[in-house]
Structures are given as structure tokens and as C-alpha cells.
Amino acid sequence: MADETTNPAPVKTWLAAPMETTAARAIERARRADDVVYVAVMPDVHLAADVCVGTATATRRLVYPSAVGGDIGCGMLAVGLGAEADVLRDPARAGALLRAMGERVPAHRRSRRNVMPMPPGLDVAGLSHPSLASAVRDEAALQLGTLGGGNHFVEMQADESNRLWLMIHSGSRAVGQAVKAHHLARATIRSASMMSLDTATDDGRAYLHDQEWARAYAHANRLAMAEQVLAALGELFAIDADESTTITCDHNHVRAESHFGETLLVHRKGAMPADAGTAGAVPGSMGTASYHVEGRGCAESLRSSAHGAGRLLSRGAARERFTRHDLRRQMQGVWFDPRLSEALREESPRSYKDVRAVMRAQAELVKVVRTLRPLLVYKGR
């Protein structure tokens, strides 16, 4: 067990650029937290609410909900399509697809007349406490198959052979936030400004159970959105998906894994599992390249990699720096709804790190299988 002041856990970094001071301080706090035995820092690292995105943190017994975050199970889905990118060259076709996405994939809640059926095994009664189940019952139904805001997206992309791909980035919506809040309220162990739960207790085991439920919900959410987008592609352009190409992964979770000869609880916050041969997807910004990858199983990274480009500027700083005109210039060649230019300034491509530098920095963590360029992006306001 790491002592908070005299025996900090080892830290291994893969950086594309020097770490910001605030992020470095947060990493230092994390490595001194009770029971933390190892921290791996990815090249997309940046600070978010006192805990860094782009980190994998290992403990033996304690779980830290903040080291996972509220969007539990947030992750990626990618699938290849039976068409070439040229199908979206025509602005009328691109506009029709954007409109269909907006109608079929709400950015926020669905109306009660338009809810999607919950998949088998995802009854909220399976959550650990009746009060938590009650808190998320309505939201779980109303938000299934919805995108959310921020850096979540539905994107059409083209690979090196000009094949069309669908990529979706989203998470557990209000469900994950409710799980985090419920369990933090019951956490009694405070260390390095973070609250934790002991997995030897009922409360700790309940958190592990509920975050797995939220991960399953997030996965179901991405599948539901993909189903709707693929239906639109079929109706508009007679395009089918090749399900054998599907890639799914998530980058906000905690799970028990074997590392360094023992079983550890690996908390990933904006860090993608990268076991040897495991497929993954690393998005850039909405105006830059994305990558399909295979993990290399690097032990020192806790078999993890970056989950994306990572923010270079905070959302507030991006809004101060970039105008609507800047956004449109940065998005040249990529279809999006120009009516959202004001709302999307904080997601300007240049508010993110250079994803090419991120990929170079983590060459020993993942192997690039496919490079994709963005063609069309749908985001919530």
C-alpha cells in the first residue's frame, strides 16, 4: 500500500508534449493516495475536475470513483460499410444524412413517445440499491440511444482505400453520473483529495457491481445509436454494414486484472485497454484523423493506451480563442450542421492535441491498423 507522504507509487509516462503543471500536480496527488500502487500516464493526458483524463491507476483493495469519472463506460464503436466515401460527396446527400441523424439520434433525452426498449439484462432493478434504481429509472429509458454533448459524436469516415466507416463516441449518459454520485456519498475513506471505497466491504462491492451495469448500459447505448444510423443509411443510400468489422471498446472503468504478478484494480479514466491483439479505436478531433489500432500488451502502461487526441485547451479557453469563422475554417472539407457553429466553438479541432503526435508517443502501446479521415460529423449542441 502506498503511503500518502513517504512512499509514492511509481509513475510511467508516454507524453506527446510536456505535461501541464496542473496535470502534473494531480498525478502527484494520485500516486500518493492510499493503496495506489502504480500510475500510467497516456499522451492525451489533461486535467478534468482534479483527476486527469488519460490515466490508468492501479490499486489492490480500494476503488476511487473519481479515477473512473461520471461517464462510466464511455467508449467507441466503429463498423465498416459496404460503400465508398464518394457517396457523401454531394452536399444534398450529406445534408439528408445529417437531418436523419438528428431525427433518429437525439442529442439529449428522447420523448416518452419515442423511447427505445431496454435490452435484456439491463433492468434497473439490478442496481445495488433501490434508491439508485429509482433515481435512474426514467433517465435510463429516456436516454438510451442518445448522444450527449461535449466531445461525443457520430462520424462518417473514410479509410485509406476510400471505404466508408461509421464511428460513434458516447457513454452512459445520466446513468453513470448517478452511479458515481450515489457511491461517492457512501465513501468514507479520504486520501489525496479523493474519496474511496473498500472492496472488502459491501459498499465497495456494490460500486464495482453498479459500474459494470453502467458500462453495459453505455455499450447498449452505442449499439442503439448505431442501429438508428445504419437504418438511415440503408433507407437513404441502400448502404449495409459489415458486422464482422465491428470494433467496440470503452475507456472509463475499473476492473480486476493481472499485472506484475498480482491482481490489481485498474482504474481507467480516458484510457483504452490495449491488451496484445485487442482492437481499439482512437479518435482525433472532429476535423482530424482517427485510428483503428491493435494493442501491444505493454506491461508498463498497465496494458492501456490513449483514448483520443486529448484536449489542449479547456472549453472556456477554446470559446475565447476561436470564433465561428475559425471553426468553419478548421472544419473545411468535413460536413457538419453550420447552424451549430456557435455551440461547437469549444470543440474546434485546434482545441485538441495533435493526434498524430499522440500516436507517435504511444507507438509501443498500440499498432495502427487503419487511418481514417473525417467526412461528416453529427454532434449535439
Integer average pLDDT: 95
The count of domains is 1
Model regions low in confidence, pLDDT < 50 over at least 5 residues: 1-5
Question: Approximately how much beta-strand content do the residues carry?
Answer: 25-35%
Radius of gyration: 20 Å
Spatial strand sequence of the major β-sheet? 10-5-7-6-17-15-14
Class based on secondary structure composition and strand pairing: alpha+beta
* CATH homologous superfamily label: tRNA-splicing ligase RtcB
Count of DSSP strands: 17
The CATH architecture name reads Alpha-Beta Complex
Give me the oligomer status. Answer: single chain
CATH topology: tRNA-splicing ligase RtcB
Gross geometry = globular
